[in-house]
Records
---
Amino acid sequence: MLNIVLFGPPGAGKGTQSDKIIKKYNLTHIATGDLFRKHLSEGSSLGKLAQKYMNEGMLVPDKVVIDMVDDKIREDKDAKGFIFDGFPRTVPQAEALDKLLTEKNAPISRMIALEVPEEELKKRIKERGKTSGRADDQDEEKIRTRIKVYLDETLPVARHYEKQGKLAMIDGVGAIDDIFQKICVKIEEAR
Ligand code: ADP
């Protein structure tokens, strides 16, 4: 099994690159932000709970996220591998994911971390906000909060996988296809 964590701050291009990775390697996409937005549009109780946090740019509580991912992994018994996008976002989430995958005897193969400077992130998120309809993309203060939460709570997750020798850093500024090529090299190394 090829299990990839696609990592990076909000606006780093995870969604764009994961679309391409999924097609090439035939992986199942687990994007926690997308899953929450789907629940929200369906009006489920999970969606309503998540909305409070998402709208403020805060993280949804670990237990809620982990249970949702656990369900998704169990749902897809025939998956050739998973790409985790926007997850894990805290060290406890990473520990929980490692445990779930150990049960399947299919640990994370590699973490691909996209690096993008903060000014560029803010620019991209605001640009996306014009069309995404996402409340959290349209407000300067919420964007700032999301970047701060990333630095405080999410960045330590890179260290978690670095300790396991799985971290691959990629420059996330440049042409989409060039970045994708660099990602592919790192994925091939891990297969
Ligand atoms: P972005 O990468 O642009 O911040 P996402 O779509 O990945 O956007 O996530 C949007 C929001 O959903 C986050 O700001 C957070 O509130 C919530 N969320 C998504 N994934 C997680 C997670 N793994 N843990 C906690 N909250 C999450």
Note: The longest strand covers residues 110-115.
---
Amino acid sequence: MRKPIIAGNWKMHMTVPEARELINGILPNVKTRDSVEIVVAPTFTVLTSVADAIKGSNVSLAAQNVYWEESGAFTGEISPLMVKDAGCSHVIIGHSERRQLFGETDETVNRRVKAALKHSLHAILCIGETLEERKSGSTFKILEKQLSGALNGVEDLAGVTVAYEPVWAIGTGMKATDEQANEAHGFIRGWIRDNYGASAASGIRILYGGSVKPDNVDGLMAQPDVDGALVGGASLKADSFSRLVNFKPV
Ligand code: PGA
């Protein structure tokens, strides 16, 4: 059985007092939810404050990005060692905003994934097609390209979770239908089976991301190949994120 993951991507939101208020609002509502892995991904400047707040709880901490070098003259970058030092066990890699706005490529995503795994950080690898790519029928081709690029030279997927995030569904309110999500996840799992074998395919968690909300999470989580959600907007309020964590598959 794959343990579902509900992960909140706080993106570029939250000062320290706001982050403390948010996490302190979430913790009491999710503390008995042992059947779900709960992850929050705050911005770098509030990681240590959130790390303090979640100590001893069932919530894990993720960074939103990581550089591949351990230290050195790389002004503005943050290394895997620093991310771990700040209390993170997970890191989001290759989010479409990084790909689209900050020049991230399959090659740089691959370097980050390898660096994360080398330092025992669990990589939440984001992939997904644009609207044009979906319309032109190339969704699976794009997913395959992103998977093979990001995982090039990665031999073991034990430290990897894949997040399928169609770009057209992120922040738009246009969630993929449950069937579209499940279909893409099935493709991803099939690719993993072909390249890593049956046990890697049945063990890997595949999250959906893109306009997941309290009113659509239950149907999504009922899909057989959907193992959780990576959530932006709805993770910024304690009540809505808590509701997502406490999903009830229908
Ligand atoms: P959204 O973002 O939930 O606001 O659509 C999802 C994401 O970018 O991970």
Note: The longest strand covers residues 122-127.
